[in-house]
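Hello,

Our lab assistant flagged a job as stuck in the queue for most of the afternoon. It eventually completed. Since we weren't sure the result was trustworthy after the delay, we are filing this so someone can double-check. Below is the sequence as submitted and the structure that was eventually returned. Let us know if re-running is recommended.
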Amino acid sequence: MKKKFDKEVFKQEVRSAVRSLFRKELDDATKEQLFQAVSSVVEDWIVDDWIDCHKASRKQDAKILYYLSMEFLEGRALGNNLINLCRETEVKKALSELGLDLNTLEDQEPDPALGNGGLGRLAACFLDSLSTLSYPAYGCGIRYRYGLFRQKIENGFQVEVPDNWLKNGYPFEIKRSEYACEVKFGGYVDTEWDGQRVHFVQKGYQSVRAVPYDIPIVGYNNSMVNTLRVWDAEPIEAFKLDEFDKGNYDRAVAQANLAKTIVDVLYPNDNHISGKELRLRQQYFFVSASLQRAIRRFMETHSDIHDLPNKAVFHMNDTHPTLAVPELMRILLDGYHLEWDDAWYITTHSCAFTNHTIMSEALEKWPVDLFQRLLPRIYQIVEEMNRRFALDIDARYGCVGVSTEKHRAMDILWDGKVRMANMAIIGSYSVNGVAAIHTEILEKEVFKDFYELWPEKFSNKTNGITQRRFMLHANPLLSDWITKHIGKGWITKLTELKKLEELKDDKKALEELKKIKYENKVRLAGYIKEHNGIEVDPNSIFDVQVKRLHEYKRQLMNILHVMYLYNQLKENPELDIVPRTFIFGAKAAPGYYRAKMTIKLINAVADVVNNDKTIGDKLKVVFIEDYKVSNAELIFPAADVSEQISTASKEASGTSNMKFMLNGALTLGTMDGANIEIVAEAGKENAFIFGLSADEVIRLEKDRSYEPMEIFNSDPEIRKVLMQLVNGFYSPDDTERFRDIYNSLLNRQSAGGIADQYFILKDFRSYCEAHNAVDKKYRDQDWWVKASLINIANGGKFSSDRTIEEYAEEIWHLEQLTLGK
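-- returned structure --
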C-alpha cells in the first residue's frame, strides 16, 4: 500500500459506495450493505497493488507457483486484509466517526465456503505466507456455491443445510471471463493422420465452460498481492430453445445443470456411483482449467514450451489434484504435439506432490471403468504411463516374484483401480510429508518401495500456520502484549517470540498474560451463551477439541472420558476436581454415519451433564455448531487445554495444535503428527503426553493381537461407561441408538473384523491419567501461566512463513518479486 491513509477521503468513499451500490444514504443502509460498501473501498485499495504485482511478475519473468488444492479455507477477508494492509486501527477510528463499528461489520461477512478442514486451512495459510514473503503464486481451486454444508444441530443430531455464502455477492472477488476455457468429459477418442503423425481427438463429449474468479491475497505490509483463482462452471450453451419448444424441458437445460452440479458442493457424498463420478468430474474440471490457463499465460511471453519447468511449478496439495500429471501430458502431446519423452520430461520436472495422509481409504483410488468412461483421453495417457513404469520395474527388479510384489505396491493401475497417490509420485519430481514422523512413516511403511527407488524425491516440510490471522487478528489482546514486550518483529518473523522466555519469572508480565487468557475466555463464554444457551464459567478449565470429525482423531475417546468423569462425580459428589468445560467443534461428512452418531453422543451427554444440578458447575459440555474459521478465532485464544489425541501414526501433522500452542494452550496429546515437534520445542514437561507410540500402534496392527474385550472384562469403570451406550442412560427413548459405537469398540464382526481399530480403550487409562495431571497442574496457577508462556515463546517454528521458505528454496525454486516502493 503506497498511498497514505486519508481519513476524510475514506469516509467519503464509504458514503459514495453506499450510494452507488445500494442507492441509499449511510443512515439508511443495513449492516450487510455497510459491510459491502466498506469492503468495496478496501478492494479498490488492493487492486492498485494487485496490478503492480502482475506487471512486476511479467517484467521480471518470474517463476510462478500454481498451488492446486480442492480446498482453500480462507476465513473472512475484510479484517485480515486491513491487518495486512496495516490500516486496521485507522479504519476502525474512521468508521467510529461515521457511527459504525468495524467488528460489527466484520460479523456481516460470511466465511467463504471454499474449504472444510485442515487441508484447506493449510492452503490458505500458505497463500498468506507466499504473499507476505513476496513469492509469486496462484492458488487454484473451485468456486463452490454451497461449500461442504452449514451445520445445524437439531435434537443433538447434525443436519446439513446449504451454505449459501454467495447469496449477497462477495465483494473481494473479480470475475475474469476473458480467461475462460473449455473442459471436456466423456465421449470417445478417435485418431487422425495428418501425413506426418497420429493425432488423438476426443469426440462425442460433453463440455463445460470454466470461468475464473480471482480473490486477492494480500501480503503483510509489503504491497504484494497474489491471487486465489477459483473456477466456476458455466454451460457452453445455457439454454436450447429448440429442445424447449419440442417439450424436452430437461434437455433444454441439461448443459446448465451439468455445469451447476460440478461447482455446487465440496466433497459430494460418494457412497454411491453418482457421487464418485461427480468428485472425479470436479477434480478434473479445476485441474484442467488451471493448467490450460497457466500454460497460455506462459506462452504469452515465451516461445518454447520446453522452458516451462523453469517458469512454472504445479504443486498438488494431496491426491485430489493428481490429474494434473496426465492433463499436463495431454496438453503437451495433443496441444503442442510433443513426443512422449519430451512431454514426460517437462511434466516430471514441473509437478510436485504433498501427501497428507497415511490412511489407506484416503489414498484415492478410482474404478477403471468410471475413469475411462468420464476421461477417455486421460485414461489412455495413464495407461501408457503405467505401461512404461511397469517396464522400468521389470528391468530393475528382474526376478518374477519380486517384480510382482513391486507391481502390486507401485503400479498406477492395479486390481481394477486407478491409484492416484502412485500416479502423483511417479509423475512428480518431489514428494513431501508434513511432519517429521509422518514423512518417516511414508518412507518406511506407506511408500517404502517408492522411497527405495527414488529416495532423492522425498523430504519433510512440517506444516505451519499464519500468525497474522491466528494471533494478530484472532487474539489482539495477546498480540498487543507481545508487541509491548518484544516489538513487532514477530509478525513476520515468528521466531522472535523466543525473546518472551525472558519474562518467565516476571510476575507482572505473567499476571498480565493470565488476565488476557481470562478475558478471552469471557469472550468465548459470551458466544457460547448466545449460540448454545449454556452458561460456562471462565474460571473453569476450557478443554477444547475442534477439528474434522473422524474416528482416528478420537473425539469418541474424549466424550467417553467425560462420561467417566461424570460417573465419578455421581458416585462421589464431594470429589475435588477443578471445574472443567469440555468444548467440541466438528463437522462429520454427510455419509459418515459413525462420525455423525458421535456428534449425537456428545450432545446427548451434554444434555444430561449440563442439566444435572447435583454436580453444580464442576462439569459442562459444549458443542459449537458450524465450526469454521470465524468462530475458531474466538476459540483458540480462550483454550487452556488443546486436545490432540489422534491415534499415534494416523495424524499427518495437524495445525490446530499449532494455533492452540501459539495462543497459550497446553497440549494434551499423543506423540503423533506435529505434536512430537511441539513437545520438542516447548518441552515435554510443559505438555501432557499419553498413549501408545506410533511404533507400538503399527506393531499391534500387524500382529492383530489386541483384544479390547479383555479391557472391558477387567476394568469395571470402563465397562460401566460402555454399557451406558446401550442401556439407555444417554438415550432413554432409544436404547439401541449408540449400539454401532459400542460394537465398533468391542465386536469384531460388527466392526468389520477390527474392534477398537483406533485403540481408544487401549489408551483410555493413560488418557485419564493425563487428565488427572491437568487437574493437578492447573491448581498451581503460577506454574500454569509460566508453561503457557513457554509454549507461546517456543512456537516460532510453526509459522507457515518458515514452511513456505523451505518449499520455495528446496522444492519450488522460487525467487521473491522486487516491487517498487
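-- support follow-up --
The delay was a queue issue, not a problem with the job. The result is valid. The chain has 34 helices and 23 strands. Residues 31-59 form the longest helix (29 residues).
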